[in-house]
Every structure is written in C-alpha cells, then in structure tokens.
Amino acid sequence: MDERPLKGPGHAISLIAPFAARSQAVIAFIRRELWKDVVLLYHTEDEFVDLTEVISASHFRPPFRCHLVKLEKDVRPALKHIKNTYVNPRFVVHVKLAQIQPLLAAAVEFGLCGTLTHYVMINWDTTLLYPANDPLTEPCNITTFSLFDQDTLAEKFRRITVLDALWKDSLSVLNASLSAVAGRPFCDSPWPEGSSITAKMFRVNATGITGRIAVDSNGQRANFTIHVYKKKGRRLQKYAEWSSNTGSISTPNALVVNHTLRLNQRETLENKTLRVSVYLVSFLHLVKSNFLSSERK
C-alpha cells in the first residue's frame, strides 16, 4: 500500500490517506493528551523515516520530547532499557501488524502495561487484532486509528482490512467513472472518452467503506476523517475523530458524554480492578477498652 503523495496533476487518483495525515493525527493526539515525553518504537529504517514528521513536530509549540528506540527481532532488550530509563512511558508504535501482539506480551513481562503506560499504534489494522481480548495484554492501554468507523459498517465488512476496503472503493469509483461515458474503445483508434473518464474520477464525490471520497487537483485524497479508537474495557471503541480539514481531533456529539476527560485523566481508575481494605478502627478501640476494663477488675 503506497502512501506516498502523488507528484502532481495527471491521470491518477489515490484514495489512501497519505502517511503524513496519520502522523498529524498522532501529533494532535499527543498534544491533546498533554504528553511531554514519547517513546517512538520501530523495527525498520523505512518505519523510522515515517516517524520523522512526528519528531519534527515535537520541536514546535507545545513541544514534547521524542525518544527513539529501535526494536530488534527480540524486543526484550529494548523494553528492558526502556523500563530502566523512563518512568511511565507513553509509546508511539510503528511496526507491522503481526509484531504488535508479541510486543505487548513482552511489555507485560517487564511491567510496561499499566495504568500510566499507553501505546499509540499507528498500523491501520490494529482494530482487527482485538488486543484487549487477550487476557495477557488486557492491562495495556491502547489507542489506534482507522480510515473507517467499524460500528457503522455492514456486518460483512466488520473484519475488512484498510487495504481491501480501499480496493473496493477504488473499483467503485472506476466503475462509476466508466458508466458515465457512452461508447467503447477500439484498438485501432484513439478513444476521445478517455479524458472524460479521468475528469469524472477527479470530480468524484461519493461515500464508500472508507468514508467520504473526494480528491484534490493533484488526485490526492481530501476532506477525509481518521477515526480514533481506544481500549475501553475489553474492546477497542471509537473515541474521537481527526479531520483532514482542520488537522485536529474532536469528539463527536454522540461520544461526548462518555469522553469528556482526556485519557490521561481517565486512565487512573477507568476499567481498573480496585482492591479495597476496610479497617474497623472504632471496633478495635472498643474491644481494647473492654479488655483493659476486665484486666482492672
């Protein structure tokens, strides 16, 4: 899935949101939560390059500090270093989907899944893992992103990957563009309707699995929404939305009641098991008094 921006006007459109948009959503989330220190985890050099926008943004107001940690095949040495270096770290994780669960499992071993530790997963398909349903990683606080709102999809699309959803939306746009012209092409002569098809694709204004579909003059996707999910209880639920128009995160009206506080304010007690001890001070004092009275007699 190529998330690089198109170079300029031409005959192609791209329905994938550029990686820069996801980076901006991550940055908006970090600032919304008032995080001051963030540990960036990655495996490959390409993943490191993807994170440079987050690193660059950390120098602007309000600033935050980025700590880069490269993960090897065995992630435990890196996690041990983090455990010994940072207090209650907040992570931004940019790794392949298959590497997320093993990473979280190892994090549990080192006590890095707790009330004040948080993982922001950049991978589009993290919602498909249902990491909160794994008893081992249940204590982990997780936030992630998606191009579509899973709760509004038809049942048959609930487990679809972002790449598959984009393919379906792309074919839908192409089909609509082709059906708008008359005639058919011939191999021995130019087809004048070709430019009409291109123009129709650039004027697309539809709704697909990945939400509203529109592109700018360069063919790059525009006016789209990135849905923000966080773990609530034992499942990932929609928490907020990031808009490509405003570049900011907002909470839809339907979710305001349950999400009026920032995550760092709600992480302390929400969905946590509390052990309560009750001390019967007055009762013990009464017993002691009766015992002393008996002794005097």
Automatic annotation (TrEMBL):
Q: What is this protein called?
A: ANF_receptor domain-containing protein
The source's domain of life comes to Eukaryota
| Parts forming coiled coils | none
UniProt keyword annotation of Transmembrane present: yes
Per the record's keyword annotation, is NADP included, yes or no? no
Task: Provide this UniProt record's keywords sorted from A to Z.
Answer: Membrane, Transmembrane, Transmembrane helix
Check the record and name the InterPro entries matching this protein: ANF_lig-bd_rcpt, Peripla_BP_I
Broad class of the protein's primary localization: membrane
Q: Where is the Receptor ligand binding region domain?
A: 21-232
From which source organism is this entry?
Heligmosomoides polygyrus (Parasitic roundworm)
Q: A GO CC term? A: membrane
Q: Where is this protein found?
A: Membrane
